[in-house]
Specification:
It is built from 1 helix and 18 strands. The chain has 217 residues and is mainly beta. It has a single domain (2-215), classed as TolB, C-terminal domain (Neuraminidase, 6 Propeller), CATH 2.120.10. The strands form 5 sheets. Strands 12, 13, 14, 15 and 16 form a 5-stranded antiparallel β-sheet that branches. The radius of gyration is 19 Å and the shape is globular.
């Protein structure tokens, strides 16, 4: 699944990972779509949609059932970086309704409640693979974690600072890191000068290269 402007707008497309078939249009919404993610079970697609006035809202649709998306977070404020919990019960996102970006959580797919999670700014929410924690970068350029308590309503513990995000790229509009199942963070390191853009290096066939080097020793 990816976002492309190969059509009239930036829309959501899907293609087999091995490239054996042509890409198919999955979601066409106006004016543009800038973020999209499937629920873990694949039944929902949550996405961020732009508006004519420049504001951004969060929508969702049931894959294969809905022809148009339904608004999840649709207000006069910017709402970005949607992230569904692994069990599909909670939607984390970033809103500027407090005057600065902060992380909030709502029930999914209903929106009959809302909780502000971050206390000093927050961007890029990411759930732990088992849903027991929620990670985000705070306003002091620190990666923090909060423990998510089980229950019928959303409850969480206090923020725990994990490390400084200063050396790494962070973005209000997009999540630009991930957390592996074993708790390791995958991030983009910033260059030390402004003359070189941030870059990500992807190494293919990594295990084969390791085997070849070990055989030569």
């Amino acid at each position: 699944m990816f976002i492309s402007d190969r059509g009239d707008n930036r829309d959501v497309w899907i293609r087999l990972a091995d490239g054996s078939a042509s890409a198919e249009l999955l979601v066409d919404d106006e004016p543009v779509i800038d973020e999209a993610a499937f629920s873990r079970d694949g039944t929902w697609l949550v996405y961020r949609r732009g508006k004519e006035d420049g504001q951004r809202d969060i929508y969702a649709l049931r894959v294969g059932q809905d022809s148009v998306g339904r608004p999840l977070v649709n207000s006069d404020f910017d709402e970005v970086a949607p992230a569904l919990s692994p069990d599909g019960r909670w939607l984390a996102f970033v809103s500027v309704e407090s005057g600065e970006p902060n992380v909030y959580v709502r029930p999914f797919p209903s929106a009959d409640a809302q909780w502000r999670v971050s206390t000093n700014g927050g961007t890029g929410p990411v759930w732990a693979r088992d849903g027991s924690e929620l990670f985000y970068s705070n306003g002091a350029d620190e990666m923090v974690a909060v423990t998510v308590r089980p229950g019928s309503t959303f409850q969480h513990g206090g923020e725990r600072v994990l490390f400084s995000t200063g050396p790494y790229r962070t973005d209000f509009y997009h999540r630009d890191y991930d957390v592996a199942a074993d708790g390791r963070f995958v991030m983009i390191r910033r260059h030390q000068t402004d003359t070189v853009v941030d870059e990500m290096v992807v190494v293919e066939n990594w295990f084969e290269e390791v085997k070849a080097r070990m055989a030569n020793q």
